[in-house]
Write a structure and sequence with these properties.
The complex is a heterodimer of chains A (about 80) and B (about 625).
Chain A: H1 3-17, H2 39-53, H3 59-64, H4 68-79
Helix pairs in contact in A: 1-2, 1-4
Chain B: H1 16-22, H2 28-39, H3 45-61, E1 69-76, H4 84-93, E2 97-102, H5 108-111, H6 115-120, E3 124-128, H7 144-169, E4 172-176, H8 197-215, E5 219-220, H9 222-229, H10 237-243, H11 252-266, E6 273-276, H12 287-294, H13 302-319, E7 323-329, H14 332-341, E8 352-358, H15 362-373, E9 380-383, H16 387-396, H17 412-419, H18 429-450, H19 454-460, E10 463-468, H20 475-484, H21 497-505, E11 510-518, E12 521-533, E13 538-546, H22 555-569, E14 574-579, H23 591-594, E15 598-600, E16 611-616, E17 629-633
Parallel strand pairs in B: 1-2, 1-3, 3-4, 4-5, 6-7, 6-9, 7-8, 10-17, 13-14
Antiparallel strand pairs in B: 10-11, 11-12, 12-13, 14-16, 15-16
Helix pairs in contact in B: 2-4, 3-4, 4-11, 7-8, 20-21
Classes of the chains: A mainly alpha (about 80), B alpha/beta (about 625).
């Protein structure tokens, strides 16, 4: 899966989870930049990404994903 | 990746944003209709959240919708907030506007005196424990007494909580069984070691069900529901450790529907009438095209067996108080004749409270059914194999519940049950007397289990024997019995349906088709005996087969006696029998001598090993076997 494909799917997921059809996630975007990005929605992001990409994150990875770039890199590794 | 439980009874989800955008300028009724139609689809957890947010925003700006409302508080030992959007959507699906609030997690007793909860003024309070907060652990060596004491103490705590909910909050407590996720210690051995975590949980859930019944507290049986879909599709240990989520977010739509159906039942919103289609729903095939002998119902094919099993489920629903109705595009007389005359139908005409069969559209029929029964359309469930009929009813009568119907009739009963539309959690006096009835049944079964005397046992079976000649509706089953029976088969002559049909028209032959029912149900058509005049005042048995499932019932004795009576009526003086041995029919090698027949000489063209037998009618024994059966004979 290419970086662009991963980013496109992640964009769709972020828009769905935060219910904001105009959201444009950048690699540097982190929880502090999105008011709704709380621990509750962090789990929703994880679960939605797992279902969309067919992957599973370990507990340590869930805690380690701090921004969109972390998400994209980890997904790229797992789908490689 | 988690694969959450399917909500296969729901139609596919429709796009939430597009549908809501389309109804944005519409009036209040149309807007509510759009929300309800969306809620009726198979939405994933994110779509549920989206719809839930939009519905909350609409409620805040518009007047409250004209639907029943319920305020639910949840006291839980784990995180539940992530489940609430799907719970509210599932409640809306069932016609209920739900406000829900979680007390701070882990503080069950403290919440009873929490002013914030009191000011929320809940109507109902759901109590949710988890595996780690149900029964305090015991050493695996703990014996049954210690285990029982630990379980009793845990359930007593729940009962005290229920009373507190009633007294302090003035609300109805709702209990829930605990999802059993403790890994076994001894494997299968946990079944007999009472102190293991898994065993304690199982016992706790049983004791909780009993205590709740005693205290008249409704139960959401989540453990039972999880048992049907699998623990791995509901619980993810990783998210338990990460966020104390007992239920995976992706399983929220399933969990929400389970809880919502209990809430809806408490509000009297459970459905009351099951409206059934006929062709390819109650039986396989089309009665108007295939005729009585061509439709598949009952024995003879897996398809027919599956439809009969579905009919048994429908009849069981009727027996617990669900009304049955029929809506079919058929000639009314043709459709009703199947209920009256087809021997393998489980449902009879008298089981159907409203019968609509004509060529008009189904929404019109459903309106008449509701009117005839004096009920609203929101009491109806419409079960039809035809997707276009389902779609038409969903569009024109959104109040009617229309579950998706699988292609395979073997899955019909489970699908209807999974949909949870006839949920009942309330206790009534009628339920209590029904329980007495069940208790009496249990006693009868126990008595039978101890009956040692065979005759007494058979008499207790309350066997009903119906004997009729071959007729059009039974031709396929008769041919099947003749062709597939290997053990109780005297001559093993294979045949065709055409040949069996010809028999039906042959007045010289005697054909006995025996159906046997007993207290446990209808065994169907289980034996066929065909005899022809063989000259010299003799009636000779050509074919005789019997299904192995009714061996040991003395049915063969009864049929021989009935054949002798019929032979005498026709002026014959003797019965003749032939046994042609095969590798598999040794069971009946001594059938004729057991029935009192005497050996007769074989003929040169008989197959090797064949034996012939004769019974002069004036020498036949008085037979007590017939007295074991209630008879319906039409030979």
């Amino acid at each position: 899966m290419t970086e662009a494909e991963i980013h496109a799917t992640l964009t769709r997921i972020f828009r769905e989870v935060f219910d904001d059809p105009t959201l444009v996630p950048t690699r540097a975007m982190a929880a502090a930049d999105v008011p709704e990005w709380d621990s509750f929605n962090h789990v929703n992001l994880i679960v939605a990404a797992e279902m969309a990409f067919g992957v599973r994150f370990r507990p340590g990875e869930i805690d380690g994903m701090k921004n969109v770039g972390d998400f994209a890199d980890l997904i790229a590794r797992k789908t490689a | 990746m988690m694969r959450p439980p399917d909500l296969a009874w729901l139609p596919p989800a429709e796009p939430v944003a597009e549908m809501l955008a389309a109804s944005r300028e519409a009036g209040s009724d149309a807007r509510l209709a759009a929300f309800r139609r969306l809620a009726g689809g198979d939405l994933d957890f994110l779509a549920c959240a989206k719809l839930d947010r939009a519905f909350a925003a609409w409620r805040a700006e518009a007047a409250e919708p004209a639907l029943p409302r319920l305020r639910l508080a949840v006291l839980a030992t784990h995180t539940v907030d992530h489940l609430f959007p799907a719970l509210r959507v599932a409640a809306l699906r069932r016609g209920l506007v739900l406000d829900v609030r979680a007390a701070p997690y882990g503080q069950l007793r403290q919440s009873l005196t929490d002013p914030a909860l009191a000011s929320f003024a809940p109507d109902s309070v759901l109590v949710l424990r988890d595996t780690d907060a149900a029964v305090p652990p015991l050493p695996p060596s703990a014996g049954p007494t210690a285990a029982q004491a630990a379980v009793a103490a845990a359930v007593a705590e729940d009962a005290a909580l229920w009373r507190g909910i009633r007294d302090s909050l003035g609300a109805l407590p709702i209990a829930a069984t605990v999802i059993e996720r403790a890994p076994p210690l001894f494997g299968h051995g946990d079944a007999t070691v009472p102190g293991t975590p898994a065993a304690l949980l199982r016992r706790y859930n049983e004791a909780l069900r009993d205590a709740a019944a005693g205290e008249r507290v409704p139960v959401a049986d989540l453990a039972g529901a999880v048992g049907r879909v699998g623990l791995d599709r509901v619980h993810d240990p990783r998210l338990w450790h990460h966020a104390k989520q007992e239920v995976h977010p992706a399983a929220a739509p399933w969990w929400g529907d389970q809880v919502a159906r209990v809430l809806a039942a408490l509000r009297g919103l459970s459905r009351k009438v099951l409206v059934l289609d006929l062709d390819n729903t109650l039986w396989g095939g089309v009665i108007g095209d295939d005729g009585m002998a061509g439709i598949r119902i009952g024995q003879g094919s897996a398809e027919g067996e599956a439809h009969a099993a579905f009919q048994r489920h429908c009849r069981a629903l009727r027996d617990r108080g669900v009304l049955l109705a029929v809506s079919s595009k058929n000639d009314r007389a043709t459709a009703e004749a199947v209920f009256d005359a087809h021997p393998d139908m489980v449902l009879r005409r008298a089981d159907i409270a409203a019968f609509e069969a004509d060529w008009n559209d189904k929404p019109a029929a459903l309106r008449r059914i509701a009117a005839d029964l004096g009920l609203g359309l929101n009491a109806l469930v419409f079960f039809d194999d035809n997707p276009s009929e389902r779609d038409l009813v969903r569009r024109t009568l959104p109040e009617v519940a229309v579950p998706e119907v699988p292609d395979d009739p073997a899955l019909f009963a489970a699908r209807l049950a999974d949909a949870g539309l006839f949920e009942s959690v309330a206790f009534t006096e009628e339920d209590a007397s029904r329980s007495d009835l069940y208790a009496a049944n249990v006693e009868r079964k126990a008595a039978e289990a101890t009956a040692t005397d065979l005759t007494a046992f058979l008499r207790d079976l309350d066997m009903r024997l119906s004997v009729r000649p071959v007729e059009a509706a039974t031709v396929p089953r008769v041919a099947q019995l003749l062709n597939k029976t290997n053990q109780f088969n005297l001559t093993t002559r294979r045949t065709t349906e055409a040949a069996v049909s010809a028999l039906a028209a042959d007045q010289s032959r005697v054909t006995l088709c025996a159906r046997l029912a007993d207290r446990f149900g209808d065994n169907g058509l289980v034996s066929v005996l065909i005899a022809r005049p063989a000259g010299g005042d003799t009636l000779a048995v050509e074919d005789w087969v019997m299904s192995c499932r009714v061996l040991g019932r003395r049915l063969e004795d009864a049929l021989a006696a009935l054949l002798a009576e019929e032979a005498a009526r026709r002026g014959a003086r003797a019965l003749a029998g032939l046994h042609v041995p095969t590798p598999r029919n040794g069971l009946v090698a001594d059938l004729y001598p057991r029935l009192g027949f005497a050996p007769a000489s074989a003929r040169p063209d008989d197959p090797p090993g064949a034996t012939r037998w004769v019974l002069p009618l004036d020498r036949r024994r008085a037979d007590d076997a017939l007295a074991l059966f209630r008879l319906e004979v039409d030979a």
